[in-house]
Amino acid sequence: MAGMPGPMAPYSTNMLTILITAVMLGSPDTRPTPPTDVASQPGRVLKDVPYAGDQNPRHRLNLFLPGTSDTPVPLVVFIHGGGWQSGHYRSGEAMLRPLVATGRYAGASIGYRLTDEAQWPAQIHDCKAALRFLRANAAQWNIDPDRIAVMGPSAGGHLSAMMGTSAGVESMQGDVGDHDDVSDRVTCVVDLFGPTDLVKMDAQAPPGARLKHDAPRSPESRLLGAPLQTVPERAATANPITYITPDDPPFLIIHGSQDAVVPYPQSVMLDAALDKAKVDTIFITVKDGGHGGRGFDELKPRIRAFLDRHLHGAKVEISDAPVDAPPPAKRQNQRRPTRR
Question: Is the pTM above the cut of 0.85?
Fold first, then answer.
């Protein structure tokens, strides 16, 4: 699983995402893009597949299919980060390609409307519409509709957690797409340092954190369409803890203890609430880790083991032992040679 999220600006997935966002979102093309079938080894890629039956360029996904299989394969759905205000579904390729290359998984990286276009709960409505579309069309892509995981970093982790806990909640369904009668349940969730209880983020921020979540133009305030602390009831509807029930799917949560963007206690609270409801949960701390980046790469095997356990029934042990973030690389001062 190459391409674990690197060091992040507020709510972004990685530097590639930032570059893509600058190019793709600076002057968005609102014309519908037809799906492009691109050959790859192994398998194939379907790019820019519309999932909502409309012309919105955010209602698109990229689908990564393995080579031929005698039986349907499980699907891993990637939800990008970006503070709900930036990012692109193309950034999921680095996470999904290595899984699909094994021949044992299909992958989908999905887009959703950002906060410059729509406020909450449009984002979760879009993610659920994409999931229902994929499940409704699973047979034609040799996907098992009963084995679907969701995963994402930062804001994508938040939306993944929401997908896990709010299945069947009417207010979280929306009317996007053409498959209202299809289930929105998922098999398991991988939440990479996503926020949960938005109104507590400033109070939980580590010393020196520069991002002010309560500010009127913060990512959270923009998501809710009002200064965060003025709409606590609306914020509660965006909290995955609100919807936890004992029948929720298993969770893998990973978070850096020194995250200055999404405070570490956000995941502590989610883990505690899931544990109280007796939901199968693994919570891994990256000691001294930030918002992605250092320390997360060595957890790739545990993510893969979690997916293998819940999507393939593998009898594997998964440690919840914390890992240490390696120290940042030291920059060497190099003097330019003196011209003679």
Answer: yes
